[in-house]
Amino acid sequence: MRAILAGGGTGGHVIPAISIAQQLRSDYGAEVLFIGTSRGIENRLVPAAGFTLRLVQVGALNRVSLKTRLKTVFDLPRAVWDSRRILSDFQPDVVIGVGGYASGPAMLAALLTRIPTLVFEPNFVPGFANRLVAPLVSAAAVHFAETGKYFRRCEVTGVPVREAFFQISDKNPAIPMLLIFGGSQGAHSINRVVMESVADLQARVPGIHIVHQTGVRDYNDAQAAYAKLGGAIEAYRFIDDMPGWFARASLLICRSGASTVAEVTAAGKPAVLVPFPRAADDHQKRNAEALERVGAAVMLEESKLDRDSLVREVAALFGDPMRFRTMGEAARKLSHPAAAHDIAAIAARLAGAKH
Question: Which of 31, 66, 72, 205 could cross-link with 318 by S-S, CB 3.0 to 4.6 Å?
Fold first, then answer.
């Protein structure tokens, strides 16, 4: 079996794609090739995972300037042509689009050459590239059941995340611990409000332990602010062992990208989700709303995020341990421990492959 995974740009696209590729290789002995662009994180992560990456040149069409949009429109035919040439060289049995810049051209090339196609869509609302090909693809794998309305044939598989997140106990930690993170680069707007709020949080939640991943930009400011306060407060530029810190946390404050949401649900952790307001198609808000609707999280929009709102929400949650439990249970019901296996199985079925 030969498979191409197309797309990338961010870790939210690339990390699940690598999990799918590893599962295809493990379960079906598949040969896997990635198609991406020169600007995405796939250039670092894909070769490091032991897979070959081929590049096409294409930019964004959504939420960009007219100049960028025009350049992308002119680049698109060449990107489709280059993708078609890669497909001709590699002769895949299936092409899997994971969203991002390279996904659209590669999927269009696969459709033109009648190669079976699978869309992987982790967000509540599909991204632009996946919406473009949605009516035409052979099948889709999604995280949220409601996303299925965009596709002709769809299966709810969830998003692949590390197994360690599923091993986290559902017992509430003995020490009240708040974990704040905004992705590997941090989230400046969240960081700023958290730094303003820590003293009030300490006053409102006795014995609270606060762990804050700031990213590089705000780390020194956070360190200086917390040094003046004393108490159990830790700031880190990065956190490598995120499952370990999830396990110790009572409550999370974080963004609501697809991979983060998948980790939150896998761990069964209550969360205050602060969607990134400039995400394409406002998909982070839609993800957060989906969790809030079932009682798995609280959404706090960035436009409403300030010291008063943050302290009020966090103090209310720490004051209601039973709500922590019900939120965690609701979150875990949305998790999918076999996501990578199930997505690989769909791809293999389309390719006509067997174990």
Answer: 205
